[in-house]
Amino acid sequence: MKKSNKTVAISPYVITPKNFVLDRNDWLDQRKEETLEPDIPVIDPHVHLYDEPGNFHYLYEQARKDLDSGHNVVATVFVECRSFYRADGPDEMKPVGETEFANGIAAMAASGRYGKARLNAAIIGRTSLLLGAAVEKVMEAHLRAAPDRFRGIRHSAGFVQGQHNHLETPGHKNFAGMMADTRYREGFSKIKPLGLIYEGGCHFTQLLEFRDLARAFPDTTMVLNHFGTPAPNGPYAGKRAGKCAALRATRCGYSVRGSGPRNA
To answer: Is 7 domain-assigned?
Structure first.
């Protein structure tokens, strides 16, 4: 991806929709590489689909081009990206619209008419764990929307003081120490009983908080997206190694560049 030429007043270690664009095939096409081991079956565990103003347009047509680029991709996992929320109804239920959308795309893929890859074979949705015990009804609504494919929820807890936060759940502002908040943990406790997993995004400065959450819920499968978003620049240059080492001491799944569920 190529950064936009537009000047944005933003921290060097926080990414928002304003400082990068997605549809840059002119840049991507500058270099062609041979596919290594093209016969190995691949499941892409972290894929977003959306249609937003500006350059945020990546739907089935664009995904198919990437899936057919040489690798033997047999399936993908859809991970929430605040796409196609319901326009009406209670705020807490609006994210269920994204699961309905993702499940519809999955049904198209399952028909086999668009190739062998089963797009959105599994779905990770969004809800706010700050709803506490009330989040259970939202998770159940996600399950009803995609009973054969819904696998878990992601409520990213990323927080940087004084900065725009693109990881926030609409209607619920992130704050320092959120993963230790009693409401967040009460909501978190509803994940495992429903047979679901937790995916979490946070900044690398919060890795110890993520570790503490994992220790508090040892039976819940947790996936840390993007390795905790390491940033070797700005005021944090060289300061993340200790926290990464501490995180390795606990059980969780990791993700690299958005790669998804993998138990460690």
So the answer is: no
Q: Residue 216 sits in which domain range?
A: 25-254
Structure-block tokens of residue 224: 């840390």
CA–CA separation, 141 and 137 (whole Å): 6
Residue whose tokens read 């959120």: 178
User: What's the DSSP call for residue 130?
Assistant: G
pLDDT of residue 188: 98
**199 and 169 in contact (C-beta within 8 Å)?**
no
pTM for the whole thing? 0.82
Q: Which residues pair with 169 in a beta bridge?
A: 172
Residue 5 lies in a domain: no
* 219 contacts: CB under 8 Å, gap ≥ 6: 192
What is the DSSP secondary-structure string of 161-185? TTS--TTPBTTB---TTGGG-HHHH
Question: Does 8 reside within a domain?
Answer: no
Let me know if residue 138 belongs to a domain: yes
Number of domains in the chain: 1
Model pLDDT for residues 121-160, shown as the tens digit of each residue? 999 999 999 999 999 999 999 999 999 999 999 998 888 7
**Long-range contacts (CB closer than 8 Å, 24 or more residues apart) made by 83-90:** 83/48, 83/49, 83/50, 83/51, 83/52, 84/50, 84/51, 85/170
